C-alpha cells in the first residue's frame, strides 16, 4: 500500500518534469532569453572578455531545445513506469490515479514557479486543496476497509 503511494507520487513528479521539459523544448524564446541574461551577467562580472556579445545565444538554444525534448520523452517513460507500478501496488486504480494527478498538479505548480516564475490564483489553490482533501478521504477509507477485511479473516 505504502509502496503504491510512493510510486504514484513519483509518477506525478516525473509527469511534471515531462511537461516542464515540453514547455522548454517548444518555447524557444525562454531558453534564448535565459542565455542572453546569463551572457550579460557573466560579462558584467568580468568572467567574459569585453566585446563578447550574445550571438552564441542565436544558435545555442537549438541544442538546448533538443536536450529538453529528450528529457520530455525520458521523463514520460519513467512516469508511465512508476504509474504502472503504482497501479500494481495500490489497492485500487482510483487511488493510484488520483494520487498521481494530485502529485502532478503540486509538482507542476512548484516547477512552474521555480523555472518560469509562474504564480497561481487563489481559486487554483482552493481547487488543489479540494483535490488533496478528496485524496485523503480516499486513502483513509481504503485503510479502514483493509482493517475490516483483516478483522473478518480472524
Fold and architecture overview:
This protein has 154 residues and is mainly alpha-helical. The protein has one domain. It has five helices and no strands. The radius of gyration is 21 Å and the shape is elongated. The chain starts with a helix and ends with a helix. The model has no long low-confidence stretch (mean pLDDT 83).
Q: What brief labels describe this structure?
A:
mainly alpha, 154 residues, 5 helices, single chain
SS-based class? mainly alpha
- Low confidence ranges: none
Averaging pLDDT over every residue, what do you get?
A: 83
Number of strands: 0
Shape: elongated
Topology record:
Blueprint: H1 2-26, H2 28-44, H3 57-89, H4 93-116, H5 122-153
Briefly say what this structure is.
The protein has 154 residues and is mainly alpha-helical.
Amino acid at each position: 500500500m505504502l509502496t503504491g503511494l510512493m510510486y504514484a507520487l513519483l509518477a506525478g513528479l516525473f509527469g511534471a518534469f515531462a511537461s516542464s521539459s515540453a514547455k522548454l523544448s517548444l518555447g524557444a524564446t525562454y531558453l534564448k532569453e535565459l542565455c542572453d541574461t546569463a551572457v550579460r551577467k557573466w560579462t558584467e562580472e568580468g568572467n567574459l572578455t569585453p566585446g563578447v556579445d550574445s550571438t552564441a545565444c542565436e544558435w545555442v538554444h537549438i541544442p538546448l531545445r533538443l536536450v529538453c525534448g529528450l528529457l520530455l520523452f525520458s521523463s514520460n517513460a519513467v512516469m508511465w513506469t512508476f504509474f504502472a507500478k503504482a497501479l500494481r501496488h495500490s489497492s485500487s486504480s482510483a487511488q493510484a490515479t488520483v494520487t498521481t494527478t494530485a502529485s502532478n498538479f503540486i509538482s507542476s505548480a512548484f516547477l512552474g514557479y521555480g523555472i518560469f516564475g509562474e504564480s497561481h490564483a487563489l481559486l487554483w489553490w482552493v481547487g488543489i486543496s479540494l483535490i488533496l482533501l478528496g485524496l485523503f478521504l480516499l486513502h483513509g477509507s481504503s485503510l479502514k476497509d483493509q482493517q475490516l477485511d483483516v478483522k473478518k479473516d480472524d
